[in-house]
Amino acid sequence: MAKEIERAGIPVVLITALISIAERVGANRIFKAEGRFHHPLGDLDMTSEAEFQWRTDLLRAASRMLTQQVDGPTVEQLIA
Length: 80
Prior knowledge:
This protein has 80 residues and is of the alpha/beta class. 36% of the residues lie in helices and 15% in strands. It is built from three helices and three strands; from the N terminus they run αβαβαβ. It has helices spanning 2-7, 19-24, 48-64; strands at 13-16, 29-32, 74-77. The mean pLDDT is 88.
């Protein structure tokens, strides 16, 4: 779906723990999440306050990709 939305001229960032699948389906902006594959934006080992801050940082980093020009699959991740 990300590929089709981009084709319409709207930049998309796919946040996932499954990078190889995102590349195979042709997503251009891929943000590697460190969470479990079925819950990439969560970490059950964190306190709720720490998890909220981590999610905020992750989403800010991922949203910066929206302004980047890419020529194919580009993978970034949150650097602690």
